[in-house]
Amino acid sequence: MSLDEVQERVSSRINNMVNTLEKQGLRALQAHSYRCSAQCCDDLTSSSSSLQNCVNKCQRPVQEVSQTLESEVQDLQRRLTRCMQDCEDKIRDEARDKPSAFNQSLMESQMQKCGIGCYNTCFDRLPSIQSRIQTAITSQLNSFQQ
Question: How many angstroms separate the CA atoms of 68 and 11, rounded?
Answer without folding.
Answer: 19
